[in-house]
């Protein structure tokens, strides 16, 4: 990446939406601009876990403003991620479809553990280099992330469904700040977080850090009240609780350092923070400057290079964990990517071509992952595994797309709940299916004279050309290709096989 390149991260949190724009300079990202809006989308989930029309509209309105600021940015310069509220929302696709159009960039719904990993990356990159073992806690609107890490490596990551918005709605719904409400909220938070005792024992970390949201808001209030800057202590939390109880109601709070938009969710946030202190034996929580959005920015740098792209590491771990036959997966990968290069030629941005080849390569590596469960319908098992695994570096939609390619690499095409209007996906699927056919004998195929190209527009057609005598030399491959032609006839696309 060139020095001076602008990068942007959009964080669709449960309480606030944030836009961080940074300039890449000599391996570091320096803030250029930061925008934050309190959208409180987490308040808009009903009992059926559907976002209300009002909550969706608040989100769309905010993203329209962000989108105006991002006009002129290229796709590779922007990444938007959504967290717990959209992980939960049953009607999230309705929100995301329009949100993508309004913002102008795709939005990745990330898993809780992936959110935790990115939070740690953001925190670690904005802290001085150190050998200390770090505990990072981030209390968001509807989830709390905890991470143990060393340097830039997050080693233990978990996300818990407890957050300032959700807890404020449940235990402080009428705005009453009573001792009984705090007691109930803290007990409930400890019940959810109890398993963290085993994952994050006191002897496993040297320094605890709090990131973003609740921790930042509490730290600001404590500093304004005369407590040491940049940290939250047990005594400070006791002092703040006393102030909240004296106010009796959230709308009566008049605390220096507390922003207006924080009053409504401070009860839930403080009760969770006190529970975390008690459970993990924390005395002092240092306030970290880094957060999820910073982790997203630095992760964009890593994704530029295969050597540092964590997704490639995750794919390799899955290959090893489920004992995929390496020789066959590499063979299929080589053939599939060769066919896709023929299709893509030199048209379009180089970065986009590389992205399509990279993801096809991963799908090829994983296409037999389900064999460890059963060889019968292994493609279905593989797709299920990818749709339900935690793979660091991947957004949920990326895993679903890999799963769709794995599911579709053999058998009927009509079974796919896929977007056959997406020419890039169809091209990847075609190349993977052809590669599996050509490698059916589990040895390197003879590809001399084989060429794949698109038919003349506007027809949705692929043409596979073979050299003279190829079908006679490889009758089983030719038979499988004839069956493949029939399979594509049941879609909006077609495949024609010709022989010179």
Structure in a nutshell:
This protein is 47% helix and 17% strand. By secondary structure, it is an alpha/beta fold.
Describe the 3D structure.
This protein has 500 residues and is α/β, with parallel strands linked by helices. It is 47% helix and 17% strand. The protein has 3 domains: 6-109, ATPase, nucleotide binding domain (Nucleotidyltransferase, domain 5); 113-294, Exopolyphosphatase. Domain 2 (Nucleotidyltransferase, domain 5); 305-447, Hypothetical protein af1432, CATH 1.10.3210.10. The protein has helices at residues 53-69, 84-88, 92-103, 112-125, 164-171, 179-193, 196-199, 213-224, 234-247, 266-280, 292-303, 310-321, 326-344, 350-366, 378-387, 396-408, 423-438, 470-473, 475-488, and strands at residues 6-12, 16-25, 28-38, 78-82, 107-109, 133-139, 144-150, 153-160, 207-211, 231-233, 284-288, 451-454, 461-466, 494-499. The strands form 3 sheets. The protein has a 6-stranded mixed β-sheet with strand order 8-7-6-9-11-10, sandwiched between helices. It has a 5-stranded mixed β-sheet with strand order 3-2-1-4-5, sandwiched between helices. A hairpin with a 2-residue loop joins strand 2 (16-25) and strand 3 (28-38). Helix 8 packs across helix 10. The chain is elongated.
